[in-house]
Design brief:
alpha/beta, 2 domains, 56% helix, globular, binds iron/sulfur cluster
């Protein structure tokens, strides 16, 4: 079966493309990510994906326009809800394009990420599938988290350090903000403060290796 696969970036595409091909799908990729800022980062992620797609003979439909203005207009004053908009805009684009171009099904590499709201994305994708009359192929690609990382490192792919938008860039690098958020979240879960400090330390040690998308 032909499938249109929304791809957020090269490293996140490695495992989903492998699995879907093993399952017999003929994949075409769709790069539409107006959430990626700033422009140089957008270009870097796109260039990385294009090179990898050539290597593995993966056809792509690419949206090259940088979507900063439109993205910000939709999330300003509603920043806490920005991920919902971010999922909706990308998954809707893919479902709509699948319907227009005659693909019976679509999916997304977002389901590879351990950092996204998996259940929210799934409900959005199912809603878009119903809206456009195409099948949403669900697979929990997080099972291949380490495999995807290993291959992307071996392929010397650019591995981004933050999710994509400018807000996530601040969350990644602004230590005071990160610490505050983690402590709040840990307190909400009734962790003792000393546990929070220990967890913070472990995350600090681990984060430089991550590709956070
Ligand atoms: S944090 Fe990530 S998923 Fe959420 S709005 Fe920013 S780029 Fe999109």
């Amino acid at each position: 079966m032909n499938i249109l696969l929304h791809i957020c970036c090269g490293p996140c595409s490695v495992y989903p493309v492998r699995v879907l091909r093993q399952q017999g799908y003929r994949i075409t990729g769709r790069f539409y990510n107006p959430n990626i800022h700033p422009y140089k980062e957008f270009k870097k992620r796109l260039n990385t994906l294009e090179k990898y797609a050539r290597d593995i003979e993966l056809p792509l439909f690419i949206e090259r326009e940088y979507g900063l203005t439109e993205f910000l207009r939709n999330v300003v004053f509603n920043e806490q809800q920005r991920c919902k908009f971010c999922y909706e805009t990308r998954l809707e684009d893919c479902a709509k394009m699948a319907a227009e171009k005659g693909f019976p099904a679509f999916s997304s590499t977002l389901f590879y990420s351990k950092y996204q709201n998996h259940q929210l994305m799934r409900s959005v994708a199912e809603r878009m599938a119903a809206k456009y009359g195409v099948e949403f192929v669900y697979h929990d690609f997080r099972e291949g988290w380490q495999e995807g990382i290993d291959i992307s490192i071996k392929e010397e792919m650019y591995r981004q350090p933050y999710c994509g938008c400018i807000y996530s860039e601040q969350e990644r690098y602004d230590k005071s903000l990160r610490k505050k958020r983690r402590t709040q979240s840990l307190n909400n879960q009734d962790f003792l403060q000393k546990d929070a400090v220990a967890v913070n330390r472990r995350v600090e040690e681990r984060e430089p290796e991550l590709s956070v998308c």
